[in-house]
Amino acid sequence: MQRGRIFSVLVFLFVALGQLQAQSRAVKIAVFAPLYIDSAFSGETYKLGRNNLPRYMLPGLDFYNGVMLAVDSLQSEKAPVGVMIYDTKSVSYGIESVLSQPAMQDVQLIIASFNSRAEIKPLADFAKEKNILLLSATYPNDGGISNNPGFVMLNPTLGGHIEAVYRFLHRSYPLENITLFRRKGIIEDQVFSTIANMNKRTPGVPLKIKTVELTDSFTAKEVTDHLDSTRRNIVVCGTLNETFGINLSKAIGSNKAYKAIAVGMPTWDALRDISNGLEIVYTTPYNFTRQDKLSIRIIDLYRLKYAGRASDMVFKGYETMYRYTKLLLKYGKDLPMHLSDKEPRLFNDFDIQATSVNKDYSTTDYLENKKLYLIRKLDGKVKSVN
Predict the structure, then answer these.
(1) Per residue in 157-211, pLDDT tens?
(2) Would you put residue 59 in left (φ > 0), alpha (ψ -120 to 50) or beta?
(3) N or C: less crowded end of the chain, CB within 10 Å?
(4) Are 147 and 74 in the same domain?
């Protein structure tokens, strides 16, 4: 495989779709994703061999593949749209360099899959300057953005996820003992303080929550010492750290004498090894059941093209690209007022609301999707709680 071939494919894609821009309703969209193309090539030579790609490359590539499947669907509908793809991990063309190119100056929508907070602000500032929407489709979502009503987080902030977790606990286990396991850290402090503040403000009976701080090298016994073998245990993981979450779930599930339900963070959505025979619940803005006709079609197309299983990132790329392209074509500059429209509905519902850090809501800092699904997983079976 050669780097030039990949570049040629992307150029051909834009030229082929760009031919449609002669029509009056044509729109131009830029997609940013962490593709790590420079990591795959030495000069013009592909250097990763024929084995599996490094894991760090897969999320961005799957998001890109989902976007491209959506482009295929839009092409089949003769949708007048031009699409440009940019690699956020490019060494030769950094984000600032890309944003200065003439091709970016008349873009009408930006779709991004970030994997670094540092990448968010340059794109968000550009979108604000040009008065266009930037849709952040994946985590991380919060790049310290403020006073930017064109920045849209389809994946809610951590605070939004924690508030949803608290409401679930208060609704489902109002009188049971709850143990929150955490590690040291700023994010962990945020999780703890959000839950503690909601517990103080609740109009009902406050939850009975015990907090236990563990080191990263904790043992299973350090976890089970805080569990009760005579009753069901409600356990909350109070950190986004994936290794901590996996080890916590393994520690709880290692002793069958303890019945437990583990409530996790939004990062658990992407962890395959998190359940381990344990019943878990976590929040996600994306609930892909994979049972509907469109899902089955995407699964089949992905298997045919790439000889693999379509991950959730494929579905996220497809849904974001297809849904918001169709809305942009329909509403044009009025798109910000229609971000929560029920149609076209592909897999998920969205509830995009203005968010302000000021209590008087004098400014809109960003737009945030408030719709979250609570997912329950046990022995590989997944279902939505809400």
Answers:
(1) 999 999 999 999 999 999 999 999 999 999 999 999 999 999 999 988 999 999 9
(2) alpha
(3) N
(4) yes
Structure tokens at 377: 């997983």
Token pair for residue 92? 């030769």
Query: Does 195 share its domain with 152?
Result: no
Q: Please tell me the total number of residues recorded for the chain in this structure.
A: 386
Q: Are residues 112 and 23 in the same domain?
A: yes
Tokens of 225: 């010492």
Half-sphere exposure of residue 120: CA atoms within 13 angstroms, side-chain side = 23
Main-chain dihedrals φ then ψ at residue 121, nearest 5 degrees: -60, -45
Element (H, E) at 179: strand 177-182
Question: pLDDT per residue over 100-113, tens digit each?
Answer: 999 999 999 999 99
> For residue 378, is it within any domain?
no
Q: Which two tokens stand for residue 60?
A: 């961005």
> CB-hemisphere CA count at 13 Å for 238?
28
What pLDDT was estimated at residue 73? 96
Of the three residues 284, 305, 328, the one that is the final residue of a domain is 284
**Can you tell me the distance from the alpha carbon of 341 to that of 299, in angstroms, rounded to the nearest whole number?**
26
Q: Name every residue whose Cβ is closer than 8 Å to that of residue 266 and which is 6 or more positions away in sequence.
A: 139, 155, 158, 161, 240, 282, 283, 284
Task: Say whether both 241 and 256 belong to one domain.
Answer: yes
Domain that residue 84 falls in: 3-156+289-371
Q: Are 25 and 104 in contact (CB under 8 A)?
A: no
pLDDT tens digits, 23-63: 445 799 999 999 988 887 766 666 766 666 788 888 999 99
% of the chain exceeding 70 in pLDDT: 88
Burial label, 90 (beta-carbon count in 10 A; 0-12, 13-18, 19+): middle
Question: How much is the pTM?
Answer: 0.85
The total domain count for the chain is 2
Q: Which among 309, 261, 263, 319 is positioned nearest to 287, based on CA atoms? A: 319
Of 284, 304, 328, the residue at which a domain comes to its end is 284
Residues 267 and 324 placed together within one structural domain of the fold: no
Query: Which helix (DSSP H) or strand (DSSP E) does residue 352 occupy?
Result: strand 352-355
Q: What is the spatial distance between Cα 309 and Cα 226, in angstroms, rounded to a whole number?
A: 39
Mean pLDDT score, 251-262: 90
Helical (H) or strand (E) element with 122: helix 120-130
